[in-house]
Write a structure and sequence with these properties.
Length: about 120
């Protein structure tokens, strides 16, 4: 089963929202899109649970996101892959990113898993 274009746009917008300070540090917004079982493996290799992610202090965010690929894993379950590039540490950092989202009975998408892996050409 393939996702419709509206679902694809929504998933890309949700991923992009995680890179904007106004939404990334809005606790109510983040609580609405993070699944109760959310986990993340950061580009550093550190693992985060939902509460860790919700508790992150506000900080500058800026990244270029590109090469989005969205794959249907099961009905209402999608894998979103893309690349990020940021200069938050003072030098350019590029990473491969992947997220697993599911659509609930209310039609809203929730994020279950995210991983960032630094590109090996760094």
């Amino acid at each position: 089963m393939k996702l419709d274009e509206e679902s694809r746009r929504t998933l890309q917008q949700l991923e992009t929202s995680l890179w904007h300070e106004a939404t990334r540090f809005d606790r109510a917004y983040m609580e609405s899109i993070l699944a109760d079982d959310f986990t993340e493996v950061g580009a550093s290799g550190r693992q985060y649970r939902r509460e860790d992610t919700l508790a992150v202090a506000r900080q500058p965010l800026a990244a270029q996101l590109s090469n989005f690929v969205i794959t249907t894993l099961a009905p209402d379950v999608a894998l979103v892959r893309y690349e990020s590039e940021d200069t938050l540490t003072g030098k350019t950092r590029r990473a491969h990113r992947s997220s697993i989202w599911s659509r609930g009975p209310n039609g809203n998408w929730v994020l279950h898993f995210h991983q960032g892996t630094l590109r090996c050409d760094e």
